Amino acid sequence: MGPGPGNPYPEVIAAFGRPVLGHLDPEFIALLDETNDRLREVFRTANPLTFPVSATGSAGMEATFVNVLGPGDVVVVGVNGVFGERMCDVATRCGAEVVRVEADWGQPLEPGSLLGAHPSPKVIAVVHAETSTGVRNDIEPIGAGKGTALFLVDCVTSLGGIPLEIDAWGVDLAYSGTQKCLGVPPGLAPVTVSPAAVDAFVERSPSWYLDFSMIADYVTGGGVRAYHHTAPISMVYALHAGLGVLLDEGLEQVQERHRRCGERLQEGLVKRGFELFAHEDHRLPELTSVYVPKDRLPDGLGEADVRNRLLGGYGIEIGGGLGPVSGEIWRIGCMGHTARERNVTLLLGALDEILR
Ligand SMILES: *Cc1c(COP(=O)(O)O)cnc(C)c1O
């Protein structure tokens, strides 16, 4: 058996066993450079400032915001789930003026509404793959129509899972996370920043740790590779290895594997009478949202009990609904190393056994 749910790629596990180099050891710097090259390949960008922030995906979000938004700057934020909401919170803490553009949970954002929300925002920010709803927001038309605004995109659940073109789609700032479609444990936030965004950095970021202008030389090799903070060496090894596995398989092939698994899962659920939650033209393959089949829960069991049975009896973890759809939907991730057709077959079979 190859990797199953919960078991990352063997190459990634092996990476954690490597001897831990010093963070300024030339051998480590070379490995970091290669990791950044690999990130540029999966992000589809030539941005020199491309590297993994030393913290989880949310720190990637915070880092992109605190470097370009200061007090009074206008940011248009698309909100149709938890992570768009989190962007508003982060932007507000920067002192920015937040213009919210909303869509109902389960529905995609309207690109025209985002572009028309303000005549001259400094930033337009959107979540590409809303993990809380399973909805894909179209970002290409926003990049095409952004004008002088910087375009900031949350790619935490899209990088590696669905087509994403940072340069061709005009994305200026993007961040991701290791534990979603990249199939690496949580702990790093890959980010990429366009030269135009670098030119628009705030004079002095309120965050010391996430100030890109202090990290840039270390990343790009311009100037001296001097100490800023200690890189989490073993996590960088793991990301390097995970990106190696991904690129060996091929970026398009990995996206195709996610597409096939998502389609098989969603078709399997519909065939069983389940009702999918996300708008049908904007469904993510890597995150399937489905209404809890309340009339088919076993006697005396709630939806959380079914999820516990899946985990305890079959080793499959699925997510519950968040916020307004808590208790109403399930969220089934099929991403990274877990995006295998046999995992879909196992889940559908398990649901057949558990549900009435
Ligand atoms: C998971 C996720 C995040 C947050 O990442 P953490 O690693 O949990 O900090 C942000 N945005 C989206 C879309 C996510 O799915």
Summarize the structure in words.
The protein is α/β, with parallel strands linked by helices. The protein folds into two domains: 10-249, Type I PLP-dependent aspartate aminotransferase-like (Major domain) (Aspartate Aminotransferase, domain 2, 3-Layer(aba) Sandwich), CATH 3.40.640.10; 251-354, Aspartate Aminotransferase, domain 1. Helix content is 38%, strand content 14%. It has helices spanning 10-15, 26-43, 57-68, 82-93, 111-115, 140-145, 195-199, 212-220, 233-249, 251-271, 303-314, 341-354, and strands at residues 49-53, 74-79, 97-102, 123-127, 129-130, 135-136, 150-154, 173-175, 189-193, 287-291, 319-320, 329-333. The strands form three sheets. The protein has a seven-stranded mixed β-sheet, with helices on both faces. It has a three-stranded antiparallel β-sheet with strand order 10-12-11, with helices on one face. The chain has a two-stranded antiparallel sheet with strand order 5-6. The two termini are 30 Å apart. The site of pyridoxal-5'-phosphate has 14 residues, from helix 3.
Which radius of gyration do the C-alpha atoms yield?
A: 20 Å
The average pLDDT score comes to: 96
Overall strand count: 12
* Backbone shape: globular
Report the structural category.
alpha/beta
What is the correct CATH architecture of the largest domain?
A: 3-Layer(aba) Sandwich
Q: Into how many domains do the coordinates divide?
A: 2
Q: Percent range for helical residues?
A: 25-40%
Give me the strand/helix succession.
HHEHEHEHEEEHEEEHHHHEHEEH
Q: Please, how many helices?
A: 12
Order of strands in the sheet with most strands: 1-9-8-7-4-2-3
Main sheet specs? 7 strands, mixed
Strand content: 5-15%
Gap between N and C termini, in Å? Answer: 30 Å
Taking pLDDT < 50 over at least 5 consecutive residues as the criterion, the unreliable ranges are none
- The H-level CATH homologous superfamily of the largest domain, spelled out, is Type I PLP-dependent aspartate aminotransferase-like (Major domain)
CATH class of the largest domain: Alpha Beta
CATH topology of the largest domain: Aspartate Aminotransferase, domain 2
Identify every distinct bound molecule in the structure, by name, code or SMILES: pyridoxal-5'-phosphate
